[in-house]
């Protein structure tokens, strides 16, 4: 027996054979649906069921909360239809496309971070919103997600910040760990843009940007757009890193304070062994926010970076600091080591 799973109120559907997940059936039929980890850990395949019955197998609560489950959200990689279904993604499906890109430049700005700039070529419009990401499609068909680090105002060009994770399928290639290395003018294939952690340009609330490591990339994209559009809202940026050298664009962020009197930068180093050379804040970056703001009820928060930080910040900001749950926007990084743990 097979069931039809219709997507985003259109005539498009995935035919899912009994015993197959929605995502597995989509892949088998060369139908592109958002995904990354394939095992219920990353939330990239999350969508809402409008109509239909199904069975959803075990998944990580970090990928789908109990509230989301109660509201009808599923992970397609773990969902097996028991009837015909209608599902709805938060992204606008018409903008999802496979994009050919060419590497323009690769800059190793520190020992384990590369800034890659690329030119996009596409028969379809592939404009993005500040805060979104693209999936990089590997030669073996696997995908790796990276946030865009520049403003959409740079038409046709995108920037990515890639941290080397030893053993990483794509990052080892970028850093030349297997004898071969990513080079300028190389052609890569992307899919997207994807993601819903985009800046709410029409809002009026003060903003807290919260990032760990290369979670800075989408923050940079949003800040460039804010500066480009001359958006005049109070913005506080908390950037958490393990050691001071990990603040790989520290001077750029400091320059934003000179450009805008409404922007405040708070770098936070986690490892207290650097006290002899670091005289700024030390500790968990999300706790630094709560130390400075006891009440977040009037704020919007955009959190980008590690799964652990986002999980704790989303919980504590709501429960301890009165942040409205709907005002917490997140872009979570799931590494290969996370997926295997």
From TrEMBL:
InterPro entries: 2Fe-2S_ferredoxin-like_sf, 2Fe-2S_ferredoxin-type, Beta-grasp_dom_sf, Cbr1-like_FAD-bd_dom, FAD-bd_FR_type, Flavoprot_Pyr_Nucl_cyt_Rdtase, FNR_nucleotide-bd, OxRdtase_FAD/NAD-bd. GO terms for molecular function: CDP-4-dehydro-6-deoxyglucose reductase activity; iron-sulfur cluster binding. Its EC number is 1.17.1.1. This is CDP-4-dehydro-6-deoxyglucose reductase. PROSITE patterns: 2FE2S_FER_2, FAD_FR. Residues 96-200 form the FAD-binding FR-type domain. Gene3D superfamilies: 3.10.20.30, Nucleotide-binding domain of ferredoxin-NADP reductase (FNR) module, Translation factors. Residues 1-93 form the 2Fe-2S ferredoxin-type domain. It is an enzyme of class 1 (oxidoreductase). Keywords: FAD, Flavoprotein, Iron, Oxidoreductase, Transport. SUPFAM superfamilies: 2Fe-2S ferredoxin-like, Ferredoxin reductase-like, C-terminal NADP-linked domain, Riboflavin synthase domain-like.
